Amino acid sequence: MSEPGSAASRPAAGELLQLACSVAVAAGQVLLGRGGRPEVVATKSSPTDVVTEADRAAEALIRDMIGEKRPGDAILGEEGGQTGGGSAVRWIVDPLDGTVNYLYGLADWAVSVAAETDGTVVAGAVFVPRRDELYSAALGDGAWLSTGALDPGGEHGSPVRLACNTGVPLAQALVATGFGYESGRRLVQAEVLRAVLPRVRDIRRGGSAAVDLCSVASGAVDAYYERGVNLWDIAAGALIAAEAGASVTGLHGRPPGTSMTVAAAPGLLTDLRDLLAGADPERDA
Ligand code: LIP
After folding, report:
1. Strand pairing partners for 111?
2. What is the DSSP letter of 269?
3. Ligand 1 within 6 A of 97 CB?
4. What is the model's pTM?
């Protein structure tokens, strides 16, 4: 019998992906099913950085479902922090990315579930319930979009393999971005935007980093950058964008993360990253 954490006990990425997809869809159903205006139960970094009762209910469901199937795994969730562990697997969960959109009844919010083995994200699922779109990727196996998860008995097409847009020059690029919740950071983000906006086709501010990264994967936008995202916002979406052919990095040779996340096809990424580096977006640190 293999020891927990030994190479022989590592689950296949496809197996983790299946669980990621089913918990993301189940949590999405819970979030969709809550009628009326969601109730704000707490705030985090600023009065506009809210937690709803729905965020907590969705994360509790995800933790229960993962815990039942894989009791030895660690789970890092936006609302509950990191718990458990012992196996080689850690789940990184944002039960509701795009909370402000959810609060206002806008469609761009998602459940994001990633699974890491020995520190590498090997599976990721982003479910966008209001569009019934399930984006998924397992490391080395491409990025995929399926629809119809909310209607399992219905007729659906086959999953579509995603490929990010390539060959787009910076001046023609549609670039998604997002802004933090604190005013000091926003001031710098506005100054960075002032440098970026005249140099690109246009900007989109969707409100969910997970959805933005899936939009890079599907070609709905050409690029994405944001300072201040958390690991749970980007873990699944970054794998999906990368498996669709995008490069996902930080600035100055660093990996993507809270300091900066940039995603685009390789050529565009270089130009966007140079433009961003020149605007010094990390100076609010
Ligand atoms: C959101 C991010 C988004 C960012 C928002 C917010 P939340 O996460 O996904 O990209 O611009 O300000 O941080 O708070 O909805 O989980």
Report:
1. 127
2. H
3. yes
4. 0.94
> Are 59 and 41 a contacting pair, CB within 8 Å?
no
Question: Would 7-161 and 170-278 be classified into the same CATH topology?
Answer: no
CATH dotted code for 170-278: 3.40.190.80
CATH class of this structure's domain 7-161: alpha beta
Ligand 1: does its nearest atom lie under 6 Å from the Cβ of 132?
Answer: no
131 CA distance to ligand 1 middle (Å): 19
Q: Is the CB of 94 under 6 A from ligand 1?
A: yes
CA of 96 to the centre of ligand 1 (A): 9
CA distance 44 to 56: 14
The structural domains of the chain, with segments of one domain joined by +, span 7-161, 170-278
Q: Which two tokens stand for residue 163?
A: 């490929």
Per-residue pLDDT of the chain (285 residues; tens, 9 = 90+): 345 555 556 899 999 999 999 999 999 999 998 665 667 767 777 676 666 788 888 999 999 999 999 999 999 998 889 999 999 999 999 999 999 999 899 999 999 999 999 999 999 999 999 999 999 999 999 999 999 999 878 777 799 999 999 999 999 999 999 999 999 999 999 999 999 999 999 999 999 999 999 999 999 999 999 999 999 999 999 999 999 999 999 999 999 999 999 999 999 999 999 999 999 999 987
Tokens of 278: 């020149």
